[in-house]
Amino acid sequence: MYKHLLKPFLFLFQPEKAHHLTLSLLRIALAIPGISQLMKAGFQYESSKLERTLFGLHFKNPVGLAAGFDKDGKYYQLMNTLGFGFIELGTVTPKPQKGNPLPRLFRLPQDEALINRMGFNNDGVEALVERLKRGGKPEGLIIGGNIGKNKWTPNEEAEQDYFICFEALFPYVDYFVVNVSSPNTPNLRDLQEKEPLSRLLNGLQALNKQKDAPKPIFLKIAPDLTDGQLDDILDIVKDTQITGVIATNTTISRANLATPDAQVEQIGAGGLSGKPVTDRSTEVIRYLYDKSGKQLTIIGVGGIASPEDAIEKLNAGAVLVQVYSGMVYEGPKLVKNIKKALV
């Protein structure tokens, strides 16, 4: 139904508008008596074979919703009906910010890809905290908090933005993700360099260790890093003793696209996600896992559009996977199909 009815309808709208329309339709459908049960029966699929206990957390299944889909905690209750084992909220910043001007999200249907330059648009960390307080956490669902810095905060002061988000969200999320790899905030990726990144992660760990029950902290990295930079990431993870990495974010590369160059150039800057990132994301996972002596904890994300894609990332060394762009093209049944294939 999604591919032949809903998807052609939604693709008539600008992608960002279609995103909000999809979630509005889901909210309406779930408010109709009996529909919620039908949707759960249609989309949810659980098995003891899917359960994972990792870094002190119990996951009912290893398939998660990547950051960016629900930046502000407005939809995680709705998305839970689709059978995710975990949902990552954010990226959230200390203060609200509008993000980049519209349009800022684009489809490349020939490549089953998206280009976004959202720019960390969000309502701010306090708004997210209030929604989590009101909404609570669905039973069995793991919630992650993806944190970033405000656009106007200079890099030399960026640590404080991450610290503010960490402290505010700490009571309400199960794990944290440090996002220094989005290409859509000016100079943000400079924080991936060894010295500033070590300082930031050590600072977060110092705060974390002050808590009675420290939370897992992950670093989300770009697929555009060189092998030398990936080696630096391994050193930083070891030195700072964070839990692991999320590999990978969107890419700034435009190599080997089926979409005509003129159309891609017209879209302009932004991070590319979807199928064109599949292979590179898996390469990064495999490189980091093998180079770490199969010790690094990795959450795999990037171009997962089929059960085979998810299995490939798990075989490369990931312990969990996340989806986003794949759902735009394949529909919400993707989550159930991955889980069935894993069983």
Could you walk me through the main structural features you see in this protein, from its secondary elements to its overall organization?
By secondary structure, the protein is an alpha/beta fold. It has a single domain, classed as TIM Barrel. Helices cover 41% and strands 17% of the residues. The protein contains 13 helices and 13 strands. It has helices spanning 2-10, 15-31, 35-43, 76-80, 125-135, 158-169, 194-209, 227-240, 261-267, 278-291, 307-316, 325-330, 333-342, and strands spanning 52-54, 57-59, 63-65, 86-92, 105-108, 113-116, 142-147, 175-179, 217-221, 244-247, 271-274, 297-301, 320-323. An 8-stranded parallel barrel has the order 3-4-7-8-9-10-12-13, surrounded by 4 helices. It has a 3-stranded antiparallel beta sheet with strand order 5-6-11. The longest helix is centred in the first third of the chain and has 17 residues, at 15-31. The chain is globular, with a radius of gyration of 19 Å.
